[in-house]
Amino acid sequence: MRVLVVGGGGREHAICMCVAKSPKVDALYCAPGNAGIARIATCVNIGAMEFDKLVDFAKENAIDFCIVGMDDPLVGGLTDRMEEAGIRTFGPRKNAAILEGSKAFSKDLMKRYNIPTASYENFDDYDKAVEYLKGSKMPIVLKADGLALGKGVLICNTLEEALEGAKEIMLDKKFGDAGAKMVIEEFMTGREVSVLSFTDGKTIRIMTSAQDHKRAGDNDTGLNTGGMGTFSPSPFYTAEVDDFCKKHIYQATVDAMAAEGRPFKGVIFFGLMITKDGPKVLEYNARFGDPEAQVVLPRMKNDIMDVMEACVDGTLDKTDLEFEDNAAVCVVLASAGYPVKYEKGKEITGLDAFDDKEGYYCFHAGTKAEGEKILTNGGRVLGITAKGDTLKEARARAYEATAWVDFDGKYMRNDIGKAIDEA
Ligand code: AMP
Ligand code: GLY
Question: What is the pLDDT of residues 113-142, one digit of tens each?
Fold first, then answer.
C-alpha cells in the first residue's frame, strides 16, 4: 500500500512510526512532515490546508490510503475531498469532524443524547452572554465555539474576568471567527484523563488512557499550551471509571453521531473530567491527541494499518486492540517563550543518541533540516518518550533522555507525571 500522512508534528511522527512498521506498507509520504519524519517517510512540501495540491499529489503518486492527523484539515473537509478523488482516507468527514470543530454542536449533542457533561448555554449575542454571566456563579468557563489551537478556553474566577473574556472572544475576536459563537459552561473540578478511541461509525474500540499537562509551567501554572507532556496509562482511569464511560459516554457518542446522520469514522478523543459525580466530557477531538499519541501509539501492539482500514471499511467489530502491559512518559522540549513568542532556527544536537535505543523515542514536533543540521522550527520542538515497566520507571527514563539533546532556549516542565506519586 502507498500511504500519505497529512500533518507535521509529534503526533504525525508517532503515526508515521507505526505506519512504517506495517508490512502492508510499500511507500510512506508525509505532507508537510518534519526533519524527524523525513527519516522514515518521504516528506512532501505541501501544507495541510492546501487541499487541491494534496489531492493532486495523492492522485499523481497513486496513494491508496490517506491518514489525516490534524484537526484543521479534518474540520475543513480534507477527507471528503480525498474520498471524492477515490482515495480511502482515515479521519472523519467534515460533517462528523464538527464534533471537534464546534463546541456548541458537541454540547448540544451531549445534551440531546444524555451524555454527561458540564451544564452550559450557547451564545451568539454578546449582550445576552453578558446578562447571563451577571447571574452566574464563579468560577465559570468560556469557550470560543471553533478551533483556536487549544487556546480558546478561558477559566474565569471573577465576574470582571468573565466579562473581559466574553469581550475578547465575541467582540475583539481574539480567536478570529472561532469566537462568533461562545459556550458558557459550569466549572468542574477533578482529575482529567484523555481517552483515545478508534471507531468505524458503529463500533468503538478504546485505546489505553493518558494524561496531558496543558499549562506551560510547573505545577500547572502559566498559559495553556498544546500540551507539555503526557503519561500513559493514567492510574486515575480505574475499572469503575472505564465501566461508567463504556455505559454512558463512548458508544453513546458514536450512536448519537450516527443518529444525526453524521457517522464518525476515525479517532474520537474524549477529554474527560472525573468529578465527584462521575466522569463527564470536557471536550471531544476528532483526531489523536498531541502529545497523547506519543505515549499511546508506542504501546500499541496492533498493526495500525489493520485498525485504520477496519475503521474505513466498517469492520472494526472484528478487531481487538492490544496494548503492552507497561507505561510510557513523554516530556516535550519546547522553545523558551512558548506559547507566546519564541525563536526558531536553533541547531539541535545529540539526536543520534536515540538511534537503536530500545524503549526510547525522540518524536519531532517543530524541526527542519538544513543541510546536515537539524534546526528548531516551532514552539514545541521535540517529544522525548520512554517506556518502562511502571510509570515511575518510564518517567525517570524520559527525564534521563531529555539530557541527551540540546538546543539554545531548550525548555521543559520538570513535573510531568508528578501526579503518579499521588495515585
Ligand atoms: P478544552 O480545550 O475544552 O479541553 O479545555 C482546555 C482545558 O480547560 C481543559 O483541559 C481543562 O483543564 C479546562 N476546562 C475546560 N472546560 C472546563 C470546565 N468545564 N471546568 C473546568 N475546567 C475546564
Ligand atoms: N493534547 C491535547 C490535544 O491534542 O488537544
Answer: 999 999 999 999 999 999 999 999 999 999
Most informative mutation of 155, 185, 270 for ligand 1 (most atoms within 8 A of CB): 155
Distance of CA 292 to the CA centre of its chain: 6
Q: What is the pTM of this model?
A: 0.97
Q: How remote is the CA of residue 131 from the centroid of ligand 2, in Å?
A: 32
For ligand 1, the distance from its centroid to the CA atom of residue 179, given in whole angstroms, is 16
CATH architecture of 191-318: 2-Layer Sandwich (3.30)
The pLDDT tens digits for 240-258 are 999 999 999 999 999 999 9
Give the Å distance between the CA of 185 and the centre of ligand 1. 10
Ligand 1 within 6 A of CB of 144? no
List CB contacts of 58: < 8 A, sequence separation 6 or more. 4, 66, 82, 85, 87
Q: What is the pLDDT of residues 1-51, one digit of tens each?
A: 999 999 999 999 999 999 999 999 999 999 999 999 999 999 999 999 999
Given a cut of 90, is residue 271 above it in pLDDT?
yes
CATH class of 327-422: alpha beta
Q: Which atom of ligand 1 is nearest to the CA of 118?
A: 19
- For the chain, which residues make up each domain, given as ranges? 2-91, 119-186, 191-318, 327-422
- Stretch 410-418: mean pLDDT: 97
User: Nearest-CA neighbor of 211 among 187, 228, 188?
Assistant: 228
SS3 per-residue string spanning 46-107? CCCCCHHHHHHHHHHCCCCEEEECCHHHHHHCHHHHHHHCCCEEECCCHHHHHHHHCHHHHH
Nearest CA to ligand 2 atom 3: 289
Yes or no: is domain 119-186 CATH 3.40.50.2300?
no
Atom of ligand 2 nearest to the CA of 292: 1
Mean pLDDT of 140-154: 90
How much is the pLDDT for 223? 87
Q: Is 214 in the pocket of ligand 1 (CB under 6 A)?
A: yes
Ligand nearest to the CA of 194: 2
